[in-house]
Amino acid sequence: MTPIVPIAVTGMGAISAIGNNVTENFRSLVDSKHGIAPIRQLDTWHRERLLAGEIHMDNAELYDRLQLSREAAYTRSTLLALMATKEAIETAAFKPGDGYRTGLISATTVGGMDATERYYDDYLVSEKNRSFIQTHPCGYAAEQMGKYFGVSDFITTISTACSSAANAIMLGARMIRAGQLDRAIVGGTDCLSRFTINGFNSLMIYTDGHCKPFDENRNGLNLGEAAAYLVLEAPEVARKRMKSPIAYLTGYGNANDAFHQTASSDNGEGAYLAMRRALEVSGLNPRDIDYVNAHGTATPNNDLAEGNALLRIYGSASAIPPFSSTKAFTGHTLAAAGAIEAVFSILALQHQVVFPNLNFSQPIASLGIVPQTALTEQRIDHVLSNSFGFGGNCSTLLFSKDHD
Amino acid sequence: MTKPIYIHGSGCVSVQPTFEAGYFFDHVTSYTQNPVPALDPDYKAFIPALQLRRMNKSMRMAIFASRMAMQQAGITTVDAIITGSGLGCLRDSERFVEALRTDEGSLLNPTPFIQSTHNMAAAALALSLGCKGYNMTYVNNANSFESALLDAMIYLTEHPAATILLGGVDELGERTTQFWDLANYLKRDDATIPTPLIEQATPGEIATEGATFFVASQEPGDHTFGKIRAVETRLEVDAPEIFISGFLQRNGIEAETLDAVVLGYNGDSRYDEIYRTLGSSLFANLPQIAFKHVVGEYDTVVAAALFLALGIFQRQHVPQRLLLNHSSIPPILRRILIYTQRRGQNHSVILVEK
Q1: ipTM above 0.90, yes or no
Q2: GO molecular function: any one (chain A) (predicted)?
């Protein structure tokens, strides 16, 4: 396969438990300051009991910051998405409607479920909150975002569980490459909801403390909420606008594990195929990768599968480049994970640092692979970022500093 | 740019017996209710009983429709699975919300949660076919199938040798239907299928469900039904006529060279005017075909319109019950435009050729 024309990344925005913008997120990563704490805001039985990565702004504050009318119905996932997208558009320094065909590709699994679960019985008896009925479908957030920012050439939403945002980023690149768009705002958003909190609880997939990605004694994940968006552009569009890209998206791969509804195959077949396809698209060799931002949820199953997939790509533990999972900082942010970690991957390229994998002490005995545990400055030209989800959906993105 | 994609097989589960051999809308099952659940084909023909018991309706309908399509195309494997679903697996979502509202804190049954995720139909297909290829699910309201179709066209341009499954699926949920009713989306009185259109239309939609899947590739084959040349969507348009003429222009086509149009009339008097205006202007001299009045309304129902258009090519026959005007039908039908919208939003056009 001929390597693709790299796609320019010209802007990014992020909001997560470790910061309300990209700079704050970076500062927390550098300072090893995680955002995992007992749930304080969400009205759930698990409040004050369960550890999660909650964003320290309530919906009222988000409405105000976005200058939205309190009369209008916006759910939390949409509010977070608007915050992150605003920053992405500002850093990319363009105005929608500037003549370039601009699309919006968003990802979510929660959609408006936080409103639906709150008003499930209330809707039937009271008119008060019925304006939120329309917010339920996952596609609604992107449509509201499109209207808010004036992006109308193309709008869609992807939902492939925890690989959703990676797939949104991938589609943006492919549409630009196929000549369908000049520019795409791509990313994902998921707020915490009782639905997902209880869902993952029913799977008995939570750790009782802080998650320990890639540790022999890892025993589950922390959930988190986040939104992150990138602005992708055809390189000639960025050039014409005299906007220098902050990074390039050089590869992407999507595969299905086709093994089980929720569990990953032990040999990490889907993960392996996604990484291999991303490398093929970029024309790079595994040894060209300087840092792997792993999916690393800290469940026994994921980290074993992903570790095995890395071993299959690299042949031996010593050949695997520095890698870390940043889930211990943010929690697992589901549909937003691929986007928030894309932002972290680009930060790694920009600042030439590998972010630490927190809470690690003992390598997984059967794998013998050791993640990076301290902030490390090093040369980074290419970063691989993994996102895997239920339903066997596996996706890998490859970001590069320069495209040649 | 993307190239046309050829369709080699299709399967459709709906409120009509579209899954029966030889059926082509010449007789139409009537209903006087809202919502209307899809007819159940003999799922066991394609799904082992043990697996079937655990599957929700989206998964069942999607697997059945895609196996039909694959059987028709004479294939047993595909390279990629690309789907759309406006609302995902609604019944399991509702079941899980109801469980957590009463028993939060205790250990809930995880199955409805696992099967609630929107990608579960595409995942079930991958699992049942052992397909490790590209796998995608679009959840773009009433343009979910169109996003899947666009992706399919891009995917096949990137992978010219591949054969893929492309489809849309949506199921009804009991509480969600109540919500849509409270939001005034649904018809309350005189809810009938076939739904009276135009002068007889009343406010509201008839909520239904269904799954339609296709086998597609970039090469014509022995069983090819036709090809899809282009698809475009817009959340909102100022004037549908300008959007559609722009689409035709971008594809180098005059409206007069279309042999028929399939329009999304659903008998909702608040929005059917959009089609009526087009029917007396841009499409005035063309045979106009409706489909939602017999299959109802759901987010991915446009896939059933594509199923219909391909069937028209294959049979060279327009079912009388679906024809809206008396415009003479060309002796050879080889180019059809599908245009739909929902509640004034999610406009889409699909250009299909024999």
Answers
A1: yes
A2: 3-oxoacyl-[acyl-carrier-protein] synthase activity
